[in-house]
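Reposting from the mailing list since nobody answered there.

I have sequence plus structure tokens for a pair of proteins and want to know whether others read the tokens the same way I do. The first protein:
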Amino acid sequence: MKKLAKIMGTAALCTGLLFTSLSCGSLDLSGLLGGLATQLQTPSLAFKSLAITGLDMEGISFKCNYDITNPYNVAVKLDKLAADISCNSSKVTSLTANEGISLAANGTKTNTFDFKLPYTSVLELAKTIANSKESLPFAIAGSVGLDLSAVTSLSNKSLSLPFSKNFDVPVVKPTLSLSNPKLVLPTLNEIVTSLKNSGMTATKAATLAASIVGGKSIDSNALSGVDLPLKVNFDLNVKNEGSSTWNYILNSIALTSSDGNVINLAATENKVSSASGTLPVTATINTLTASKFVTQIINKTGTNPKFSFDSGVSFPSLGNSASIPLAYSTEVALSKFGIAKSN
């Protein structure tokens, strides 16, 4: 009995010492448990969105957003994102992105990546898939690889976070072209008056005006300082070679001449809701700001002007009423410009 009592007393002493140590803070139990909890957590990925950001003459551009949460007390790196894009379960293309991005400790970072689907691929797939008049069923599936070498307590120094997303792609291929460009001249009397108002003699003004109306070449500086309003007209031809129902809207047009002068043009009409249509465009320019451009059109020599169109399209049948930007620009040969006279 004495031996047993001695053993029990020793045990009680050891227990008392242990609790005394804990209460005195020599062992931070809450910190220890918190550290263990952090090590038990793993990074996570949340795929946020996938949307069409724009169209051009080659294909449809998409942007994807996703969040990665890093629960560790040190920053880690994103090795790379790799994904396959498929349509109707058949692989269309692959992509990689976001290599070397740093993920801050104990935080969440939003990352993005872009990709483009060529119209040629979309139209070819539409031929092989039934009921694909309006859209095609696409999917993106892949993973984000993380480099966890900075987390010293981990034996596994890498981690792969999978993601996937289904999305619809409109069966579309916009085709835009510019036709019938022409410079519309004022009447002969209006031209003579403008030339005389610039300080020209009546004889010289009459001779120059006759050359302009007659389609003859003039000196490159002949219209410098002359206040002469003219019109530039052309047609913008719009067509969807795909089968999706769409709405096309023309927001603005900018003409850049060889001297870098930018002229804003206005369309008489600006919407096409059918598969194809023609928008007549007219604009008033003035030789005070565009004399070189006008002279080049008259002489049919010089650098070709560039037309840039700010447009948008929407696909109401897909529940998309928002206008998606469509970029288009083209050069028009000076030799293509006609010279027309006002009625």
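The second protein, same order (residues first, tokens after):
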Amino acid sequence: MTFLCPTLARAVALLCLSQPLAADTGEVVQSIIGRTLVGSEASHSIIHADGSLEGRYNGIAFSGKWYLDGDQYCREFTRGIALAQSCVQVRADRDAAGRIVGVIFVGDGYRTQFHLMD
């Protein structure tokens, strides 16, 4: 059993290193500006450098605005969706080469994942 423990510990360490636990919201958001995000319910969502956002959620076109507040991505919808303003952390979903291929929005009781289309 002592042989298995060091091997298991190394495997867990590698897994932890391949998926960063801490969010670096600002850096991740900056890297996805202008790129198309697609999720299970939202399609063709885009955050723009001017602080605006747009897309479709369950077939409903929406638009709004976004900004960074410390390590939080905050968004407010102004058309199409009636949801309260919220702020969440944004984490990168990376491929084996370290490229960002998606993002995960994480807040209190909230977690949703998007894939990057371009």
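Reply #1 (J.P.):
I read it the same way you do. DSSP finds two helices and eight strands in the chain.
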